[in-house]
Design a protein that fits this description.
The protein is built from 3 helices and 26 strands. It is mainly beta and 400 residues long. The chain has 3 domains: 115 residues, no CATH class; 119 residues, Galactose-binding domain-like (Jelly Rolls), CATH 2.60.120; 101 residues, Sandwich (Jelly Rolls), CATH 2.60.120.260.
């Protein structure tokens, strides 16, 4: 009995080793020589992306001794949003008999407002306030209460900004009542709002090599575009070039392996659609024509976010990329905790060549080819089942 148990343990251990050690990268990218110690960026080109999973789980950077080094993946330039400041008219700013400050701000265009920036003269004090809204400046309705003005000030100027946040409101008038207690009021100079300018978000894209496609205008009043990329390039946007009537508005579905997204084709508007990150070499677009004539699609392009791989490398060593392994697990590196500390002004390292490599990589210490993984697992399970059945029968005989 002990011998059988021992054999089972050995078989389980073998199965575990097979499944955990079988990381076989099939593509290698050789990098330029490193001239000095420091951080380097490697641009993710469309060609390079075709060998890597969307989440980069099957990418490794290794030195000449096959020792891997940490890396992060980031946009090729910092992503930011700029904000526009709009001054709001203050139509009342006075001290009431109760000792409370009453500030009435006008929202002329009935914009959606969820925060107001108040510019105050320096004052290291704390206050509480309530805010209410009105469309006629006569009938007021509570928006928020017990708003806390933090005790703050700045040292390099005599003014600072106090932001008042509250539930989104479109009232034409907003009244802020500040409780001063028995103290002097705050000196509020100006009020305004910040709005995000999405168009200034510095996220860039690169266009993949043109995809081929076939268009089928079906009898079910739908158009089906079967798209095929030259390789499994990453993409997060799809761009269509349409020929059609001067006016059209059609619903479309984009079906990739990641998900299905619904959008609209509208004449006069950009025909660029965002999708979940994908690297499908083939996917489908369905256009709902209704009773309208089918649109003519001239071209289909896929675009991916412009990204780079950043790593710290040492002079005197040669490095290479290991890519493309369906069984690879995404590595977790400490370096990601310090990504904001790494400058964007770092040298770029080129991939000088890309080549296929053997299915078994010495760097991963694999002792069984990936082609044998599942057959070995199945055999191990059969043997385990056989021993389990025998043990069950022996236990049954003892109980009789």
């Amino acid at each position: 009995m002990q011998i059988r148990k021992h054999n089972i343990i050995i078989l389980i251990t073998i199965a575990f080793c097979v499944t955990t050690n079988a990381q076989n990268f099939s593509v290698k990218g050789r990098l330029n020589t490193v001239q000095k110690n420091g951080f380097y960026a490697i641009d993710v080109t469309p060609e390079l992306s075709s060998y890597i999973a969307n989440d980069f789980r099957d990418l490794r950077i290794a030195d000449d001794k096959e020792k891997t080094v940490p890396y992060i993946v980031r946009p090729t330039q910092p992503v930011f949003s700029s904000y526009n400041y709009f001054k709001l008219p203050i139509i009342k700013n006075e001290l009431a008999d109760s000792g409370r400050s009453v500030l009435i701000i006008q929202n002329n265009d009935a914009k959606k407002i969820a925060a107001i920036a108040l510019i105050l003269r320096n004052a290291a004090v704390a206050r509480t306030a309530t805010i209410s809204g009105s469309d006629d400046a006569n009938h007021w309705f509570t928006v928020d209460e017990d708003i806390y003005f933090q005790k703050q000030f700045v040292t390099d100027a005599d003014k600072y900004v106090q932001t008042v946040q509250f539930p989104t409101s479109t009232y034409r008038y907003l009244k802020i009542v500040i409780d001063n207690g028995k103290n002097n009021p705050l000196n509020i100079i100006e009020a305004g709002i910040y709005t995000s300018d999405a168009s200034s978000t510095a996220l860039s894209y690169i266009t993949n090599p043109a995809a081929s496609f076939s268009q089928v205008d079906s009898a079910d009043k739908n158009t089906y575009l079967h798209i095929k990329q030259p390789a499994a390039y990453h993409f997060t946007r799809i761009r269509l070039l349409i020929k059609g009537p001067h006016f059209y508005q059609r619903s479309i579905d984009i079906l990739t392996g990641a998900n299905t997204s619904s959008n609209e084709l509208v004449s006069g508007k950009k025909t660029v659609f965002s999708v979940q990150p994908s690297n499908d070499s083939t996917f489908l677009i369905k256009i709902y024509n209704g009773d309208n004539p089918a649109l003519q699609v001239d071209s289909v392009l896929t675009e991916q976010e412009s990204k780079q791989v950043v790593t710290y490398l040492e002079a005197g060593k040669t490095y290479h990329l290991l890519m493309h392994d369906p069984l690879a697990i995404k590595p977790v590196y400490d370096l990601k905790q310090f990504k904001d500390s790494i400058s964007y002004d770092i040298p770029t390292l080129q991939v000088v060549s890309v080549e296929k490599i053997n299915s078994v990589q010495p760097a991963d210490n694999s002792f069984i080819s990936k082609n044998w993984i599942w057959p070995v697992i199945i055999i191990v399970l059969i043997v385990l089942g056989f021993f389990t059945l025998r043990l069950t029968r022996e236990v049954g005989k003892r109980d009789v």
